[in-house]
Amino acid sequence: MDPQPNFDQFCLKRILMNDTERKMIAVEGNFKGLPEPAVVVMEKYAFDEASVLNVCNAQTKLKKNLDNDVYKSFSCVPQYDENIPSNKMDLIYPATDKHILKFSSQPIYCVQETEEMYQTITLHHILDNSLSLQWVYNCLEYKSEKERITYDTASENQKDDEDNGFLLLPDLKWSGKLNELYLLAIIKKRNIKSLRDLTTDHLPLLKNILNKGSAAIYKLYGVQQSQLRTYVHYQPSFYHFHVHFTYLMHTPPGINVGKAHLLTTIINNIEMQGNYYQKATLDYFIKESDPLFNRFEEKGILSKAKLIDEINNV
């Protein structure tokens, strides 16, 4: 066969794999007139830093998908074909130092947070440095993103909706493609900051999210509960309790050890010991310039200099 085959003659048979994390797809097919099968693997290049400003240049139109408080999301659509979004762009404006930190590349450290560390260090940090939750309250009060809410427990007239209710809506990172499914369940109660606050009293809420959320996703998208990864982040990106639902075939950021805790495991732990998450030592990763890192460093728990010494002694 010609060393440079004519792809105009390529006949697609089936998609073998669509890796949403690597932005790679593999397909099987054959070239007309040739019996042997062929596998074609396509992968998107990483962004060229020098060309970032051209992503939304004069040849591209912005289509707004979301506008809630400081958060906006757009599809970048080339003018030559308005049916094909080329990139997704999120805008945070005005951005705080906390926002800038979240998206900055930095050295990362592992924290083993004990009950005492949480009470004396982390909790004070949360109360002093949390991001604004106005965008969350806008959703809960139907002031923003009303059209994006895919499920509301209030629609089923639950008597305990204020205590055990939640909204289900797409995460900003979801492109809308089914194989990248990503939704958030945001609770209606406003006094649960994170995993650390959960006790036996919250089991009805957690089970409601697991069962009602999974049922709603199956009804809307045909994805079964056994095909979902349902988890909670610790530390979370914002301190109003919420649960992540992602498709198992998709591998978004934040699903690894040191960040994600499966909701079923959380429920089982609390059923075994009601105050499990008040007493447990929780491991998580933290960036070097995070203000929480500075608090741990001041207490002698983490140290940049200590890490450098350990590396030099390897």
Structure, explained:
- The chain has 314 residues and is an alpha+beta fold.
- The protein has 2 domains: 97 residues, Scavenger mRNA decapping enzyme, N-terminal domain (Phosphorylase Kinase, domain 1, 2-Layer Sandwich), CATH 3.30.200.40; 192 residues, HIT family, subunit A (2-Layer Sandwich).
- Helices cover 26% and strands 28% of the residues.
- The strands form 4 sheets. It has a 6-stranded antiparallel beta sheet.
- A hairpin with an 8-residue loop joins strand 5 and strand 6.
- Helix 2 packs across helix 8 and helix 5 packs antiparallel against helix 6.
- The chain is globular and about 70 Å long.
What's the gist of this structure?
By secondary structure, the chain is α+β, with helices and mostly antiparallel strands. It has helices spanning 97-102, 115-129, 134-140, 161-164, 203-221, 263-272, 276-279, 291-298, 304-312, and strands at residues 10-19, 24-31, 38-43, 60-68, 71-78, 87-92, 108-113, 151-152, 166-170, 182-187, 228-233, 242-247, 260-262, 282-287.
